[in-house]
Amino acid sequence: MYFQLKPPSIAKIRAKFIIEKLGNYPRNIDNINLFFTGRTGAGKTTLSNRLLGSDYFLSTGHQDCTKEINLIEFPIGLKCFDTPGVCSDELLENYNRVALGINQIEDCPIVEDLTLARYRENCSAPQEENLSISEFVNLEFQPDLIYYLIAPEKLFTRGDRQYLRDLLKFHQNVIYVFNMFVNKQTGVSYFAKEANIQDTATQISKVHHKVLGQHSQPVIIGVNCFTGEGISDLLHQSYMMLKGNKGKLFKELIQYQQQKTPDEYVN
Ligand SMILES: Nc1nc2c(ncn2[C@@H]2O[C@H](COP(=O)(O)OP(=O)(O)OP(=O)(O)O)[C@@H](O)[C@H]2O)c(=O)[nH]1
Ligand SMILES: [Mg+2]
Q: Is residue 47 a contact partner of residue 148, using CB atoms and an 8 Å limit?
């Protein structure tokens, strides 16, 4: 075959409009601190890149095994934090815990300082700062919303459950994002079996109910961080969870995408 024509990806087009809207947003919003957390390799950095439509981290080679706390700052007041992964290395997990303001794991090296890498639009390299824990705490980056990335084929084991228990004691605005891995060439989903997905969801629900009570329903959604499928649902759930002025930004992002995507797709 000489030519292989593929239709454009709607998910990619939509992601492009997120960054466009954030760049032209007409007014400042209340500060929104959005955190990405989850197990090492679950897809935190890939999702932040896909969501923000720009390969911020890839360009500097920081995407694999994030060790610093990476912060993307948008002039309108949105801050996105990509944190070190949990459940692989206890020291890395303690960095994650410090970033989110939760208790560190005892009996393992305690973190006393950290590196915050700030990425800003149009800057090729991040600005890195070494901060003591108290200096970091004084910056008051309280999470408004947390995307908890989960690779369901890896299940939700004891370490994950312990981490989630600790997280929920401090923060309740958590969206559980199942990253449905796809083959990068074909875009076809693989790995996670229905039973894995069910089992992981059940384990999460148990911990969630135990810490927050039976009335609190966990918000679990499926996305593919690589292709961007499911991101519209993620934005919608973010709007529902944040509500008020902060939630409005997500609503406007969805509306902007809905307005612009059909024309761009046809073109
Ligand atoms: N094949 C495939 N690879 C994916 C997909 N999503 C993410 N990946 C890859 O999985 C690897 C890990 O993803 P990352 O986004 O770096 O994971 P992370 O959660 O940021 O990991 P840490 O920073 O180490 O905690 C990367 O090499 C991604 O390219 C997918 O849908 N399909
Ligand atoms: Mg990462």
A: no
